[in-house]
């Protein structure tokens, strides 16, 4: 049994437990001891005290070294971490291996960023009565950061919260998704081995009640959450004066203009639509194709999709594994059926076997269908024709979400026009919406969230600016 880790000590004797099951085999991978109220209070108090007594005064080079050593240790055990992610999340092993490499990269970005957190000098003499004064601005850590993370990228998305927080000098209370706590447990152990002070990173195993309690705690200064819109909205309403970063998902559009490289777009969008069974916030969910190339694109897209291997995620050549659990697979299948009942057509896939949903391509869809209007978070994509550039932009913006989009065209002027008009946090040209690097600003508009991730930008959100002003002596040199 594994449990919470508080002040360097593991708590695994709780009577309240939970099994972590392999989404593909149904086998139990671990038994988790859930944190109780006493452990929660210990974690919060200890994080608060460790910040004030240790972390806020830790030199930048020490924080940097801890992050670098953690990255080195993960690199040594990369294959073991990938196997854990595949077993607990059902992610095909090649994708899990890629996630581990990205997690290592995030740690290294954060290690470097820890040494480059700087302030500025304010020109006080710009004001009418500012002569003889000097103004400095320092970026200082906030305090305790609550990192509440999802199942779909249990290592990388967790480190997008933890690593910048440590780089900035904060302490972290880490509440992982209840479906994927094994990788979280191993990650915290890795930080301990790398020399992080006891209490600087506390792990709380639990359900949504733990997350809710963290949001309401007056000793938590920042909440960074990735997950569903309803939970994000609740956090925003309850957080009070806390800083929050919310990444709440999308139904990402991808636009294919008639001058695009169709073969390249097909190859990228098959991956972007169905990677990890579509359980990706920026998964390509809506593909808008200019009418003159619509039939050509659709035919090639269907053919490529049908060639994907569906099966055991532990096999290296598997493209599509299970969804996180059967409940989610049933929910996604019901959304397909609802769309068909209202006139949509299934061009490929869509049948379910337990937790596995075969990649579904939908046409003849309407904008009010769930598979279009909401975040599907499943291997379901809709292909929709459009006439003009204006129509493509209007269709793409017709959503309560706005995280990332992809635009395929060889026309640079058009690319820039469309990128400016799309109501998104990020736009890729000749690349899928699903593509993300770990050092660019990442975060949406509208109901896709608040704030930015990407290590440098996350650090900015985990510090606050402190002004220090000096009234100087007269400028005349003293005679000594």
What descriptors fit this protein?
seven-stranded mixed β-sheet, 480 residues, Aldehyde Dehydrogenase, Chain A, domain 1, alpha/beta, Aldehyde Dehydrogenase, Chain A, domain 2, 22 strands
Question: What can you tell me about this protein's structure?
Answer:
The chain is α/β, with parallel strands linked by helices and 480 residues long. The protein folds into two domains: 4-248 and 444-467, Aldehyde Dehydrogenase, Chain A, domain 1 (3-Layer(aba) Sandwich), CATH 3.40.605; 253-429, Aldehyde Dehydrogenase, Chain A, domain 2 (3-Layer(aba) Sandwich), CATH 3.40.309.10. 39% of the residues lie in helices and 21% in strands. It has 15 helices and 22 strands. The chain has helices at residues 37-53, 60-76, 78-89, 93-113, 156-168, 181-193, 208-216, 229-238, 262-274, 291-306, 326-341, 370-373, 389-397, 412-421, 455-461; strands at residues 4-6, 9-11, 17-21, 28-33, 120-122, 133-141, 144-148, 171-175, 201-203, 222-226, 243-247, 253-256, 286-290, 345-348, 352-353, 356-357, 360-363, 380-386, 404-408, 426-429, 449-450, 463-471. The strands form six sheets. Strands 14-17-18-13-12-19-20 form a seven-stranded mixed β-sheet, with helices on both faces. Helix 2 packs across helix 6 and helix 3 packs across helix 4 (93-113). It is globular and about 80 Å long.
Rg, Å, rounded:
24 Å
Percent of residues in beta strands? 15-25%
Structural class by sheet pairing and helices: alpha/beta
Strand order of the largest sheet: 14-17-18-13-12-19-20
Tell me the count of domains. 2
- Which percent bin holds the helix content? 25-40%
- Cα distance spanning the termini: 73 Å
CATH fold label of the largest domain: Aldehyde Dehydrogenase, Chain A, domain 1
The CATH fourth-level homologous superfamily of the largest domain: Aldehyde Dehydrogenase, Chain A, domain 1
- The dominant shape is globular
- Please report the number of helical segments: 15
The biggest beta sheet reads: 7 strands, mixed
